[in-house]
Amino acid sequence: MDESTKRLLQRLMRRIQTQMLRTTLDKWGRLTGEQLRSMDFTLSKWALTEKLLAICEENELAVKHITELEMICESDVIDNPSQGMWYAFQLMDPEGTYYDAHSVELTQFKEQFKSHLRELIRHVSVKIKKHTDEAVWIRIAWGDTFSRPNHMKPTYVVHYLQTPYVFVTSLTSKQKPLLSQALVLSTRYQAIKDANLSGRKLTAIRDLLMRQYHQVFPTRYPAPIAENDQTVSNQHIEREQAEPAANRLQAACEAFGGGVLPQLQSAVYKLETKFRDHSNKTMTEREEPFKCVVKFASTNLLESLRHCASSGIASTPVTPLLSSIPLKGKNYFVITDNGPGPSSQMRQPQN
Amino acid sequence: MVVLKSLPGVDSGGGATNDDAAAAKIQKNPQFVLDVFISEATQNKEKDLRIMDGASTKGVLSHLSLLEVQARSRKSERQQPSRVKELKAKAEALRTQRDQLKAEIETHKSLQKLRASMDKQCAHEEEEDEEMAEDSENSELLRLMARHTQLKDLLHAHDIIGGYSVIKTRQGKGLCVSVTTAYNGVYLENYNLEMDLKPTVRISRDNIPPFIPLKSLAEQSNMQTDIRTLLDPLSQHLNAFAARKQQLKLVKELHKSVKVMESNALCSLLVLMFTVPREKMAVLCSLEYTDHTRCLPTRVHFECEDQGLPDSPEWKKNGSLLMETPVHKALKTMKKMGDIV
Predict the structure, then answer these.
(1) Which residues of A touch B208 (CB under 8 A)?
(2) For a designed S-S bond to B139, which of A117, A339, B132, B195 qualifies (C-beta 3.0 to 4.6 A apart)?
(3) How far is A300 from chain B (nearest CA, A)?
(4) Which residue in chain A is spatially nearest to B213 when comparing CA positions?
(5) Which residue of A163, A209, A217 is in closest CB contact with B211?
């Protein structure tokens, strides 16, 4: 194993949590049972790393095997602190009929993607794997004309076949056009655009965009939504406020969802509207729009917004500016004077 | 004939003094007697004639004319009783009809009252029944009739909206439609569509999975005028998807010896691996469901090391079995036939 591979493994080991190590190595399957048993998981991470390095040398594993392990860490291990932000993209304008775009098979996609990407950039290492939840994970290590693929800074792409959604992390602006091209050609769509949704957790942005969380709709007989237990301060207040509280809760859940919500960390509103404040004449008189950015940040943004609505801090019905976050599956909005709602402008110029 | 019998004056036997005088005269003068006799006779004749004239007004002729009149009147009297009977009967019938109609109107009125109270009851289920003034048997019947009309109206409404559960939102400006999916008598997922009605009908929110082509179905439908042109195809797609998904789940649960090599989100492609019992050979079976509104495959393909196996009669039969029966049931049959492990 050469130095770069060793460094890759060391970096990987730093990121894996000790308690997940055994299962991860098991899934990897490159260690024999005996080797796995020989690892003492009570030792320090550094010691474990050394032991693992030795075993990998023994098995003559190469960089491609290590990248396998990395992919398992990224995709299979839940709540793995990811490398960074995940960004959502959407494929646009399917070619042909709906059936054509939906009939892209896995093997077809794999071959086409690899060949198209290799055509665009010669030195690239692509690894594709499909998961049980129909997600196709792609790991791309980019090189250029002179250097070999850099495995220390791979890009991960997750695509759900038969949906137009693609999630990407660690992609530079130089690499973006190449990836976009390869994706468009291998999925039979005609274009790809930024979906204006980003977050630290892939599962969260995926659930939001693909509507895989519990949504609440108005029904004839609304089931009582379990609210977190609050200490009953005053029975009289409780009795009086029971109905308005239930209505607020219903409105909040209809806007944001019921149960556990996808964890978003921020929402950004870029305002390009004219300044409006009658007490400040100088600003109001200006012709150009007043550029301003409003950012909401939280460990679980949707949960906090829902709580604002259900507790009465934000009035119900929830303003479309906030309810657009789950409705449109976006957390970046540009608001201009032309439309009342958020427009979907792109954050960075596309090719 | 006038019989000159006992002329008072001409009595030889006895006689009064007048007679005596007369008799004396007659004895004395026979001409005188004759004159008296003739005058007396003519006086009698005139009397008789006068009597006969009176009898002609109250006599035979008059009797005849009376009979004539009677006969005439009897003829005309014979028609009138039957006509009267007819008219009487008709009047009777009309009266009974009127009474019937009156009774029906009364029943209908009380039915409506009962129905109104029933409808109110359904909305606020705490209210108690109102008392009926009539006797219990009548009111029970009325209650049943009211319930019957209520259920009929409900069925009719259900037919109009095509069996979808729809409610109005935002004071009539919006709708929320709920589409249920079911397979094999088991209810599966519920999908919802929230729609705006003004200014145009459009979908504002939904929880339909992204691989169901909601947008293109909406574009192809006539939802501005008939919302069922959107809901019916959508329900077809969703139910077929739910059925295929359920079949895959059952294959995984019930047929552990069959390995699922590949599947996809829309469950429109399934690749299974069978093991043939005797030779322990593997057969790869691909099922393609290109018609997304159906839950049966449109193409079945077998691949095996033994090139001849897919063409053998048993496997050709298996192929058509897989095309016609849901996959989990087909596998059961194939196992029974001993074609697969």
Answers:
(1) 211
(2) B132
(3) 22
(4) A98
(5) A163
Rounded distance, CA B244 to CA B268, Å? 8
Q: Which of B169, B208, B264 sits opposite A162 (nearest CB)?
A: B264
Name the residue ranges covered by the structural domains of chain A: 3-77, 86-94+103-210, 247-323
CB A182 within 8 A of CB A113: yes
**Strand A86-94 relative to strand A165-169: parallel, antiparallel, unpaired?**
antiparallel
Characterize the bridge pairing of strands A266-273 and A332-336: parallel
Facing B210 at nearest CB: one of A99, A105, A163: A163
Paired tokens of A72: 């398992």
Taking the C-alpha atoms of residue A22 and residue A37, their distance in angstroms, rounded to an integer, is 10
> To 5 degrees, how large is the angle CA A249–CA A251–CA A256?
90
The answer to whether the complex's ipTM is over 0.85 is no
Contact A162 B265 (CB under 8 A): yes
Q: How far is B175 from chain A (nearest CA, A)?
A: 9
A28-31 own/partner pairs: CB under 8 Å, 24+ apart:
A28/A68, A28/A69, A28/A72, A30/A56, A30/A59, A30/A61, A30/A65, A30/A68, A30/A69, A31/A55, A31/A59
By a Cβ cutoff of 8 Å, what residues of chain B touch chain A?
Answer: 165, 167, 169, 176, 178, 192, 194, 204-211, 213, 216, 262-266, 268-269, 290, 292
pLDDT in tens, B222-268: 888 888 899 999 999 999 999 999 999 999 999 888 889 888 888 88
Q: Tell me if B209 and A211 make a contact (CB, 8 A cut-off).
A: yes
Q: Closest Cα partner for B230 from B219, B240, B244, B238?
A: B219
> How big, in percent rounded to 5, are the helix, strand and coil portions of chain A?
40, 20, 40
Query: Assign residue A268 a region: left if phi > 0, alpha if psi is -120 to 50, beta otherwise?
Result: beta
pLDDT digits (tens, 9 = 90+) for A256-298: 998 899 999 999 999 988 888 888 888 777 888 888 899 999 9
Peptide bond into A94 cis (omega under 30): no
3-state secondary structure B256-277: CCCEEEEECCCCCEEEEEEEEC
